[in-house]
Amino acid sequence: MAVSSFYLLFLTLSWGLFFTNAIQPSQKQVLLQLRKQLEYPKQLDFWVNNTSDDLCYLSSPQVNITCENNYVTELKIFGFVADQQPKKMSSSFNGFPIPSQTLSQNFSMDSLIATLSRLTSLKALTLVSLGIWGQIPDKVQRLYTLKHIDLSYNYLYGSFPPTFTRLASLESVNLDANFFNGTFPNDVNLLSNLTTLSLKENGFTGQLPDLPNLPNTLMFLYLSKNLFSGQIPVKYGQLNHLQELDLSFNSLSGVPPPSLFSLPYITYLNLTSNKMTGQLPSHLQCGNKLAVVDISLNRFMGGLPSCLSNELNNRNVKFDGNCLMVDVKHQNPSSHCVEEARGVEVDPKSVKDPGKRNNPVILVGVILGGVLCLVVLVLGSVVICRRISVRGLSEPKLLQKQVQDYSVTGYPSELLTSARLVSEAAKLDTGGIPVHRLFSFEELREATRNFHRSTLIGEGSTGKIYKGKLENGTDIAIRHLTVSKKYTIRNLKLRLDLLARLRHPHLVCLLGHCISNEAPNDGDSNKVYLVYEYVNNGNYHSLLAGNVLKWEDRLRILSGVAKAVHFLHTGLIPGFFNNRLKANNILLNESGMAKLSDYGLSIIAEDIKKEDANREGVESWQMKNLEDDVYNFGFILLESLVGPSAASRKDEFLVNEMASFETEDERKKVVDPVVLASSSPQSLSVIISITKKCFVGDSWARPSFEDVLWHLQYAAQVQANAQRPAETVSLMKC
Ligand SMILES: *[C@@H]1O[C@H](CO)[C@@H](O)[C@H](O)[C@H]1NC(C)=O
Ligand SMILES: *[C@@H]1O[C@H](CO)[C@@H](O)[C@H](O)[C@H]1NC(C)=O
Ligand SMILES: *[C@@H]1O[C@H](CO)[C@@H](O)[C@H](O)[C@H]1NC(C)=O
Ligand SMILES: *[C@@H]1O[C@H](CO)[C@@H](O)[C@H](O)[C@H]1NC(C)=O
Ligand SMILES: *[C@@H]1O[C@H](CO)[C@@H](O)[C@H](O)[C@H]1NC(C)=O
Ligand SMILES: *[C@@H]1O[C@H](CO)[C@@H](O)[C@H](O)[C@H]1NC(C)=O
Ligand SMILES: *[C@@H]1O[C@H](CO)[C@@H](O)[C@H](O)[C@H]1NC(C)=O
């Protein structure tokens, strides 16, 4: 009786976990978190008090969620009343929250982006008129699945982070009616699938975004009502798919490139209210589809090209407010255009008297003056540069150069130069972890009795590991690496410094390092010694093999490691993603706390990986690339479920036996008896479900570590609840 009802419960549960269409619990959690961060807008109330539990199938005129495979792919929230157009509420904004217009002081754009990045399948994001304020943080690059983003009518300000252009899948971007007041990244051409870019009603400054060799997908470009200046780049005349271009209400100057008018698909061209000057060529060609042209309120002179004349064509052309020679009663006197156009460069007096304009004395004077200005400017900037470099900015600059020089083996240069801890990590309590320091080779030699054989405790693809004892009695582990000479010592040191910043309670602590020139040197490599705390209570692999760990202990250890890896992925920008995760590398200290070792080494040891690749052939290298951290952690989860014997039959197991988890009987055959005896079936099911997801073929479709961690903690909770009636469980905090 009891047994059969147990089966029934179990079957229901596993059915529930594997086959229903309900939104993923972790995704729902993210949405509720989002509601909190947006400070509980009324239009999201129905997320909590609607009886239907599945947010994927709830929508309202102002809120719409679309899901695929139970993951949120589209999220749209509009803050204004449905049948009204949003309006810019305020015309000025000084970067501080405004009551009843913006979200409160508590709102953080950084946290909002972090939360959104947990919607790992999100393709379309629309958050319009919700009072969102702040600067777009660098970590916006985490939203790399996005194809469409609309954050219009909010209170975003500042510049655009360069990382924005790494959102390579973007197709449409709408940031109208915000308060952006810096420059726009000039490598927009990286967004190779971009069709629509709309930045209307902001305060963007500087030149128009350069769109060199944009792969001709751009169709709609709206930049009106900003403070863009300079000329329209000639390359805009090569945007072969462009249909609509609105550059009105800026401070653009010069003559627009004539090819702009003859683009094959252009229908709408609006250049009104700028400072454009000069004469449009009379033989200007207009594209067949060009229907609307607005060049009014500029400083154009001369005649109107015949293809822009209203009488002859079916075009709607506006040209009032220039100094053209047609329809003169709506034009300004030519002095208006000449003065305004030239007044900046030449003394106005000379404009009034054309005879003087070519006066060589004045010309020479102007040129001399210009040269003098230039000299002063150059000298000035040299002095400023000197100052800056003295103040210590020189190191990253130097580094950047070096990384470029060694780009063959280099990490992407941005990684080193822009790497920095994100705020959560900075807040992380790392108290008690000793400071990173330099060790002398002498010190290490003493600690290991001159690297005596008996102190050798491991040897892997990354080099030998020795155990040592420092003078003060501290036990240490020393990893000896041979690192390519392609890095200069300085570059290497910066890499090591970056490694030293990876500090987390669940990471084996890197105490310091030593770059030796005393040790024998074979010419094209450097000897590097990494000094770690010695973690002495065995590793997870051997504990699993010893069949002693109960299910709750396994969950506790796994949660700790998942936290550490989550930190490696997101605690530093850009993250460390290849951490050679395996059960052997999870060490336990005397209080049973899990600490991950062997992490982050790809930053100095990538050569080793490449050699491996050569040896094992291209195919297996590709396989390895498929095996990212999530995949490898999935394998550790699997070992936790079925015991480490599975390790020897890795691929075979995955193909043939993952399916065995589906039914209770088969599960009994496969799952480690210790686990079966100490786990609740519900808790087990949670882990089985997340384990499967880690093995999904496409690495991008795999869960994030935040997801993995959530499942681990959820499984631990379920386990604790199941045990509570019998015994009081204290979940160990990790
Ligand atoms: C929905 O929930 C909110 C807050 O949770 C509450 O203020 C509101 O009255 C509820 N609305 C309905 C229709 O139940
Ligand atoms: C729940 O949502 C559905 C679909 O949007 C809606 O028709 C229904 O009225 C809502 N129920 C409540 C109690 O809000
Ligand atoms: C929600 O979005 C889907 C997909 O874009 C669309 O089919 C549906 O009509 C939208 N519903 C509302 C209420 O906007
Ligand atoms: C942009 O606006 C913010 C908020 O008003 C201000 O603090 C910042 O100095 C401005 N930046 C520039 C480049 O004008
Ligand atoms: C901001 O957060 C603090 C602390 O969490 C809270 O006491 C305060 O009420 C919040 N303010 C607003 C406007 O939500
Ligand atoms: C750009 O679009 C093409 C065609 O839709 C697609 O195959 C490609 O993956 C997209 N590129 C990116 C970076 O998303
Ligand atoms: C050009 O843009 C301005 C401002 O957006 C608008 O007022 C004007 O009507 C546009 N011109 C045409 C011909 O559409």
From TrEMBL:
Bilayer-crossing regions: 361-385
Residues annotated as domain Protein kinase: 451-714
Location, primary (coarse class): membrane
Record GO terms (molecular function): ATP binding; protein kinase activity; receptor serine/threonine kinase binding
Top-rank taxon: Eukaryota
UniProt keyword annotation of Heme present: no
InterPro entries (UniProt xref): Kinase-like_dom_sf, Leu-rich_rpt, LRR_dom_sf, Plant_LRR-RLKs, Prot_kinase_dom, Ser-Thr/Tyr_kinase_cat_dom
Signal peptide residue numbers: 1-22
PANTHER family: LRR RECEPTOR-LIKE SERINE/THREONINE-PROTEIN KINASE-RELATED, PROTEIN KINASE DOMAIN-CONTAINING PROTEIN
Protein name: Protein kinase domain-containing protein
Organism: Tagetes erecta
